[in-house]
Design brief:
With 416 residues, the chain is α/β, with parallel strands linked by helices. Helices cover 51% and strands 10% of the residues. The chain contains 19 helices and eleven strands.
Length: 416
């Protein structure tokens, strides 16, 4: 399947519209109108078709990636749709509230999304506790909060198991408290029948935790997930009803093998103007949010500009139902732009910063002399880069099939 050529005719029309419109003409405006807008529109039209065919009773757009989705969905389908809500959710909040349902160490760890580099501080907080309060407990094992954990073999890590066992009672107590707060929050929505949850993807951990929590509350609602993409290898597809627009098990699996390198960029484009949900709490609003980590930054300024241009495209075409919703076509220009970036696009997006797993530029600028003088440092920066095609473009600056270079390097350096 040629992911570059299939959408050419469609995007020729889109680019002609972009050039004739009134508005900005920056790289971010272009990506918003010509790349992101068509993708979001196709995705939401697909969702609307799915939920009406399935006779869904209610749609929950999970925060934070669901913020822009919910805005555009309401813009496109004000009447022809089930009732829909923006629902505060996060991996941490849902997983912590469900820990007490099955507090076995292996089951708890399998329910979590665990990055490559984590510390005991990260682990303790993902178990729902304030890590500062457990410095002395860690010291009993000769550990500090900043000590790193080998996440690859974490299920068999005897030291992590000992720490979990030491803190288990407090973890379960806190989980019960957050479960009670979750119940109070979810009761506001009157969920019943078939419930659609909408998010960007990728493994389905949040849907799995959400469904477990509803079941524990005695709510027999059927939870169906609709995602931009579902990792084909995700085990959660065996336990939950999940649908991916771009890819899932048995659908466009070859696309996932390359598009997965764009996941961070996709998540960035769906940025919400508020912090992540920290936890459910028993108060009027029912939630406690983290501070918005991108407040007054270049990153949020440019991404919100991109979203405004995407909204322009969606508004112009919201009442049309004749255009394609083929995921390959709707994703085509985004895929092409970021898999084989221009120098200008690589610089503009590469200079944006993300904060997870730590603050770093999306594609850091590296000078040729640095590569010659410190190849091991440059290699490490490349491996940790969240957009490797952009990294290589800024480094080499010439037209090359960068996605092929990334795939080759993946085979050479198994740990990246």
């Amino acid at each position: 399947m040629n992911f570059y050529d299939k959408s050419n005719l469609f995007y020729k029309k889109v680019e002609e519209e972009y050039l004739s419109r009134d508005g900005g003409n920056s790289v971010f405006d272009y990506v918003g109108y010509c790349c992101f807008g068509p993708l979001v529109r196709g995705f939401l039209r697909w969702i609307n078709s799915q939920v009406n065919n399935e006779q869904i009773n209610c749609i929950l757009f999970f925060s934070r990636d669901g913020y822009f989705m919910k805005q555009m969905y309401s813009l496109m389908f004000e009447e022809d749709s089930p009732r829909s809500f923006y629902f505060y959710a996060s991996r941490r909040a849902l997983q912590v509230a469900s820990i007490h349902l099955n507090p076995n160490y292996v089951d708890v760890m399998k329910s979590m999304f665990i990055p490559r580099r984590i510390t005991y501080k990260w682990l303790i907080e993902r178990w729902g506790l304030d890590s500062i309060l457990y410095v002395d407990e860690l010291a009993k094992f000769g550990l500090n909060l900043g000590d790193y954990v080998d996440s690859v073999s974490i299920l068999e890590n005897d030291m992590v198991k000992k720490v979990y066992a030491q803190l288990k009672d407090d973890i379960i107590t806190n989980s019960n408290n957050e479960f009670d707060a979750f119940k109070a929050y979810v009761d506001q929505f009157g969920l019943e029948g078939k419930i659609a949850v909408v998010d960007i993807g990728w493994y389905g951990n949040m849907q799995n935790s959400f469904a477990r929590l509803l079941n524990a509350l005695g709510n027999n609602a059927e939870v169906i997930g609709y995602y931009l993409g579902v990792v084909p290898q995700s085990e959660k597809q065996k336990e939950n009803c999940m649908h991916g627009y771009l890819f899932q098990a048995g659908k466009n699996e070859l696309l996932y093998e390359t598009a997965r390198y764009l996941c961070t960029l996709l998540e960035l484009c769906f940025m919400a103007p508020h912090g992540s949900l920290k936890k459910y709490v028993l108060c009027d609003q029912g939630v406690e949010l983290e501070d918005f980590e991108y407040l007054d930054t270049l990153t949020s300024e440019k991404v919100f500009s991109l979203q405004e241009s995407a909204k322009d495209y969606i508004s112009k075409h919201k009442n049309e139902d004749t255009d394609t919703i083929d995921p390959i076509i709707c994703f085509g220009q985004f895929y092409k732009a970021f898999m084989r970036p221009t120098k200008e696009l690589a610089i503009c997006f590469g200079d944006l910063e993300i904060t997870e797993p730590y603050t770093m530029r999306i594609a850091e600028k590296i000078q040729i002399f640095e590569m010659i003088a410190h190849p091991s440092i440059v290699r490490e920066k490349y491996i940790n880069s969240s957009w490797k095609m952009g990294f290589l473009k800024r480094l080499m600056r010439i037209p090359l099939p960068y996605e092929e270079l990334v795939i080759i390097s993946k085979k050479v350096y198994k740990k990246q």
